């Protein structure tokens, strides 16, 4: 595997990231971009040197060319539904017996505004079963969660895009639509090389138009970056906020003639998107409809070397399909406690 990745790196012509400058970052540094985002990227040549392309249920060259132009791809029916069903059974177990677990959840409700992230054990089951809930990094707890996150059909595409080993960074599980305003992930999910970031939206059920589906602007990965007043990353020093970010993205995409599209995919389908694709969650028009989904963020080996919660210590790794995910350094006793996936 190491030999293959070395060959891929040569074909990709990637370089290591220089030291971060003190002044605010206002654009991705060109020389640190994934090879596929550079002007001279030769997809056909790359695929010829990439043996995994022969064993995929999709045309890799076609998907990579589409990615370059649009900033996303949809992979049809690439995850086994039995795996998805098992993942959701574990979430139901987590909710029903929440007092036994430490998994963190984010609650975007007014009464939790002062403390939006808490252990699942401290949240009432009625809240956990409702909207405005994100289950954070459940893959830490779940063997099948890790297997889905690092599924061979996802890893093969992202390894080709990065020209490097894939690292699973974090995950979110949703029962209902997020209803999140337009954004780009790199502003909030930051790897050591900002452009070395991608995400997968994995449908755990068929998506209905009234369930608050994901939306996105094809081609928006190429527009100019938004400056929060202290650069392209949102933090406690920013003078502008996510509402300003959303307004900028919507207006800029519309001025550029980019058309908003709605994601209506089927259970087992996967949307993979670029770090800079503008996207969000639409309004839930029918509150009885769920939108069960598993969202995973990824980086490359050179760009994400340490767990974000313990950046000064070498991480403990789990390897699946040639990709790695790091053990949560703060909850090692919760790692892989849902074990049914070992049989699958």
CATH level-two architecture: Sandwich
Q: What is the CATH superfamily classification? A: q2cbj1_9rhob like domain
Number of domains: 1
Overall body shape: globular
β-sheet strand percentage: 15-25%
Explain what this protein looks like in three dimensions:
The protein is an alpha+beta fold and 344 residues long. The protein has a single domain, classed as q2cbj1_9rhob like domain (Jelly Rolls). Helix content is 23%, strand content 17%. A hairpin with a 2-residue loop joins strand 12 (317-320) and strand 13. Keywords: Dioxygenase, Oxidoreductase. Pfam families: PhyH.
What's this, in brief?
With 344 residues, the chain is α+β, with helices and mostly antiparallel strands. It is built from eight helices and 13 strands.
Itemize the secondary structure elements and their pairings:
Blueprint: H1 2-12, H2 43-48, H3 60-70, E1 72-75, H4 81-96, E2 104-107, E3 117-119, H5 125-128, E4 133-136, H6 143-149, H7 152-162, E5 166-174, E6 198-203, E7 214-216, H8 242-255, E8 261-262, E9 270-274, E10 279-281, E11 293-300, E12 317-320, E13 323-326
Parallel strand pairs: 5-13
Antiparallel strand pairs: 1-9, 2-3, 2-4, 4-5, 5-11, 6-9, 6-11, 7-8, 7-10, 12-13
